[in-house]
Amino acid sequence: MKKVTKAVIPAAGLGTRMLPIARSVPKEVLPIVDRPVMEYLVREAVDSGIKDILIITNRGKGVIEDYFDHSPEYEDKLRAKGKLDEIEAMRELTSKANIYFIRQKEPKGLGHAISCAKAFTGDDPFCVLYGDDVIASEVPVCRQLICAYDKYGLGVAGVNRVTDEQIVKYCSLKVDPIENNEYKVSDMIEKPKIEQKFSNFSILGRVLLTSDIYDILDRTEPGAGNEIQLTDAMRELCRTKGMTAVEFEGTRYDMGSKLGFLYANVEYALRHPELSEPFKAYLRELTKTL
After folding, report:
1. Whole-number Å distance between alpha carbons of 59 and 210
2. Which of 242, 249, 250 is nearest to 176 (CA)?
């Protein structure tokens, strides 16, 4: 069984829930405190042992590629001030993994975006980190999925329980317990009506796929939203080859929503080594006025 060393991050969405700022700033580079959303995704992949990362973008998102490039103008200023540690910190991620970019030239949905990664992943298994989802966890979620893949040799869905109100906006999985937080997946449906749901388990931002997904995607017809849905392809995958699910440990932030963006900034600021204490003091004073 092949080791998981590749990851794909789809980041070609328009980010309409983040308008008006999304007109000029891709949501993937909006800051969580002092780092863009995309860095948190790349860091999770790197911390999970991933060596090669493909970021799928579209027109107008070249700033993501620029962020992971070297910055001679900043490095020269930092070097002149003797701040060599800051230069090393800026280069840290790109020294640990190879980061590649490709464009999804047509907005045909997440399934189509993943199909664009075929030449990159080849026959290898790979993690998918949805561009909207930042997850804070003790063990990186990709690492949690890789552990399940190493055990069962099947594709893995990262899942959590959601409310009935949320399930109709996400997907619903039919699962049977295996052990602990691991499940066998026998069916799934994208954006179900309440009466169609299998359970309140939904995929939240992370999956691990095998190369079997590509042949399925090639014949997957447009589904919800008239887009090629990755969930529809995974539905066939779990019915034919089989899939597992891991109820992952971690707190997910929906970075495609304004509230999710605000939650992430507050909670990451509370954990920030330099900002935590003064920010706590500010919040204590602020809450007195609410």
Report:
1. 28
2. 242
